[in-house]
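Tokenised fold entry reproduced for absentees:

. . .
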Amino acid sequence: MVLAEDYGYQLSPQPAQAMTPKIREEVQKAIADTAVKGANSSKAARGMVFTLVAVLSVSLAITTQFFWLLLIGFLVAWVLSDSAGKSSAKTAKAAEERVRELTTPVLDGRWQAWPCRMEAVANTPQRRVLLLDPSGEAAVTFLSDVPGEAWLGLTDGRGLVWFVGDLRFGGMMALPGGDPLWWTGPPVPDPAPAPAPSPSGGRKALEEELARQAVKFAFDAWLR
């Protein structure tokens, strides 16, 4: 049982990717991008090590006039560059597997309806996204690259959102209907509370109403 169910919030009857096919595209893109970065990193490691050792070998051969050192130097350069490339490739493969693990809950999971509060963050275009428990307190907080349509789509920064994934690691989020869609990134610690008066009655009532909407939310209107 996911935390949303503990709170009584609704889950979609179908997997999120069945309702929002773009999810699979985004997951495949994330995996492919990680693989490309890994391949580029491996190539860069090979090239950097080979070049460094080769340059040192040439310099040493010229300085000592022992040009037979070039043969040994280039052999050592090849061995070390190959080792560096394999090590980098192994690291890249682990990163790709990690992405696959983190995106599995996104592919397998169902959409969860959550009351949400979004806040601007100083000196960054990212937004603080707080998924709220029934009392209006933050159950989990993300620092995300929220699309402008979503940021402007929540009146006063409050409304319902859909989430799929694992709250411990992050996942994907969307406005009701599945668009726009964005990655949450990993959860972040809640900011240190600044001295402030207790929430107004109006704000508290609004957040409690959002929680009630999450409990009563009907996904059926978006079933394909």
